Every structure is written in structure tokens, then in C-alpha cells.
Amino acid sequence: MELRPPAKELPTAQLLAERALATLQRFLHVEAVSGCVLLVAAATALIWANSPFAGSYHALWHQPLSIQLGTFVFAKPLHFWINDALMTIFFLVVGMEIRREAHEGALSRFDQALLPVIAAAGGVIAPGLIYLSLNIDAVRGQGWAVPTATDIAFAVGVLALLGRSIPVNLRVFLLALAIVDDVIAVLIIAFFYSGGLQVGGLLVASLGILMVLALQRIGIGSALGYIVPGAIVWAGLLTSGAHPTLAGIVLGLMTPVRSMPLREHPLQMLSRVARELQGSDALQNRDTHHLASPRRQLLLAQREMLPPVVRVQTALHPWVSYAIMPLFALANAGVSLTGVDLSAGAQSVMLGVGIALVAGKPVGVIGATWLAVKLGWCRLAPSVSWGGICVVGLLAGIGFTMSIFIAMLAFTDETLLNAAKLGVLLGSVVAAMLGLGGGAVYIRYRRSLMRAHRSPGRDRDVRGSLRQRRDRSAAG
């Protein structure tokens, strides 16, 4: 039986709803929007923590939240569930981004990856040294890694605010640099901010990893099937003394970059099922029994159209950008300015973090990039100039999410922690403003060069110069 198209068009309300939903989905995937939401959450936390309702702000994050299975009870404050559980999903997306870029992106080729790797290394070393020069004391020196991180969402979001005049290769360079920076930050957390590791917990985490590998081996493609093994990895790292959010990185790096092998290509499967349905009365009669198998095949083909690393990352992106990261900022950016003790030690921490982000990051990124190009190890990508590298260096000073996260691992003293957070907030805001200002100057300079290149007078001068050269060559 041949399927016929609908006799009438879809209702106007349905068409408007579909267009609105499609517009919303595109809107949610714009980096600049997620950066603005993150900024609003941080500003809300600051205002709330310094308002007459400051007590409710601090009380909220200390509310206990427990999970009970029989006699087993796991109770932790809300602050723990945000910073140690939800942020694992953030690190999962970061791990998937690293996996994608290493497979087919800016980090897939050695010659492409070398320059952002060197730039990111310079952007870690220079801020760390600046911070340590202002904080020689061992306790305050624990925060050396706070200004070494770059917030991907904020940095890329601010760059997106500059519009499409920014070359694509410059965006790719910033993204690759931020990803490498996150890799370094994860390694720093693993090696410098994890306590004494317990073998039992590592064995539990290893068991979860083996379960993930086994599920991949037998062809389980649904992300839901990996929730339990992922939870085991998380619990194992938590009990081992390592930070549990590292489970997200581990699982993200293990996410397959190729679709699950099928007997036929997903497009072929879709075509075959469509032909079978056209020759059947099951769809016309809404026979759920005979439609069950085609429906399963259609869902399988739809799922395997994209590799898991792309599919899962795309699904989690809105949740991470518009729920998890803003919630983290809301829970951790609320520094009480009236209660900040800016004594000599705390003031050094705040200044060390702020100066290292604003000055150390650009100096490290630009200096390392210039050295790598000068020595002939690398070369700038087409359409990327040194002005663009300067803009990237300024934007790399936006630490925010990752810097605050490391600060909470580095300091147990509330005074030093608040000073570090304040330094992160001030340094990130200044870096963002400098990046926007520098980007605006860079765009105007590029446009002036393009206008000069396209001006008719210049074209006549160039043609006249070429004609004179030909005449002199002919005369000679």
C-alpha cells in the first residue's frame, strides 16, 4: 500500500511551535549566550551574599541531601552534590571535547596541536610563577594553580560577542588552547590536589572502567547503560582520595568516536524500513504489534547516525551550559565583601590571582607562541595575525569556573579561599573587558586593512607599478 501525503497543511499553531523550538535550540548552542548566563549567575551570587538575605544564601548550600538504600545512607550538603557530583558531568563534556579534538579536530595532527599546546603551557607557567613570586609562604603557595586555568565557556563566549569578523582559525586556536589548558588543569588536580590514594577505592574505580569496556565490547550503544558503571567509577575515585570529578574526564576520554558497528548502514536501514512500511498496512491500521520491530530499527538507525562522542556531548551541552555551570557559579561565587579579611596574607593571594590572570596569562600565551614561531617549531595558521594572538592571550585570562574549582581544592582556610575567589572574579572580569576592547581594536584594524586593500586607488597604483616593471623588463 502506498503512503499518501497529508491532505492539508499542519496547523499554524503547530508550525509556530516548531519554529520557536528550533530557534530556541539554536539559541541555546550559542557560546555567547551561555557565557552571559554564567555571568548573571555569578553576579546574582555576589549580590545575594552581600544583601540582607546573606544568611539564607549560605544556609541553602549547607542543606543536607541524602541517598538511602536500605540501611546504607549517604548524606552530604548541597554544596558537595554541586561541586563533586554535578561538576562530574561538566568534566565528562570536557573529556568528550578533548576526545573529539584529538580524533578529528584541532588536536588530531601534531603540527596543528603543537602551537596551542606550547601556548597553553606558557599560559600555565607564567601565571604560576607570578603568583608564587607574591606568595612565597607554603600555605598561600598552595594556590599557585588557581590562575593557570582558562574557562572555555566564558572565553569562547566573549570571543563570540565580537561577531563574525573574527577569523575562524583564531576561534579554533582559542578553543584548542582552552582545551589543552583544561587537560593541564585536570592533571594538576590529579597530581597536586588529590590526597593520599587508597588502593581499595582505585580497585573499585578500575572495576567500573572494566564494566564500561565490557559494555562497549558487547555493543551497548545507549548512554543509559553506562550510568551504573560511571557511578561506580565516581564512587571509587571518591573513596580513593582522588577528586571524584576526574571520573568525568576518564569516561569522556573513553567515549567511542565511531558509531556502533551494524549489519547495514543507518541510511540503508532507514530506506529499507521505509520501503517495508510502504508495502504494509500496519502503519495505516496503527498495528502496534507489527510496528514494534520497525520502530526499534528506526530508533537504532537514528541513534547511530552520529558517533557516541558527538551524540552524548550534544545532548549534555544545554544542561551543562544552562544548568550545571550557572548553578556552580551561584553556589561558589557568593563572596561576602564585608566579611573578606584582606590582611597581608589574604591580600597577597587576591593580588597574586588577579595579576596572574590579567597579566600572566597574556604574557605566557603570547610569549610562548612567539618563541615557538621564532624558533621555527610552528607557524601561525592562515588569517591569524599577532594581533589576534594578543586577543586570545587576553581572553585566556578568564579563569572563572575552573579557577574557582581549583581554589576550593587549594585552600581550606576560609579567609584565603574568599580572597582567592575575589581575585578570580576581579581578574576574570578585567580580562574579559580587556579582551573585548582588544578584540574591537583588532577588528577595526583588520577592516581598515581590507578597505585599503580593496580601494580603487590602490588597485591603480598596483597595476601601474606592475606595468612599469614589465616596461623596464622589456626595455632591458
From TrEMBL:
Catalytic activity reported:
Na(+)(in) + 2 H(+)(out) = Na(+)(out) + 2 H(+)(in)
A Pfam family found in this protein is Na_H_antiport_1
Could you tell me which residues belong to the region Disordered? Answer: 454-476
Q: How does it sit in the membrane?
A: Multi-pass membrane protein
Recorded hits in InterPro entries, A to Z, give:
Na/H_antiporter_dom_sf, NhaA
GO MF entries? sodium:proton antiporter activity
Q: Which residues cross the membrane?
A: 27-49, 113-132, 144-163, 170-193, 199-216, 319-337, 349-373, 385-411, 423-445
Which UniProt key words apply to this protein? Antiport, Cell membrane, Ion transport, Membrane, Sodium, Sodium transport, Transmembrane, Transmembrane helix, Transport
Which Gene Ontology cellular-component terms appear in the entry? plasma membrane
One GO biological process this protein is involved in is: regulation of pH
Q: What is its main location?
A: membrane
Localization recorded for this chain is:
Cell inner membrane; Cell membrane
| Family indicated by similarity | Belongs to the NhaA Na(+)/H(+) (TC 2.A.33) antiporter family.
Its annotated function is as follows: Na(+)/H(+) antiporter that extrudes sodium in exchange for external protons.
Indicate what this protein is called per its UniProt record: Na(+)/H(+) antiporter NhaA
UniProt lists the gene as nhaA
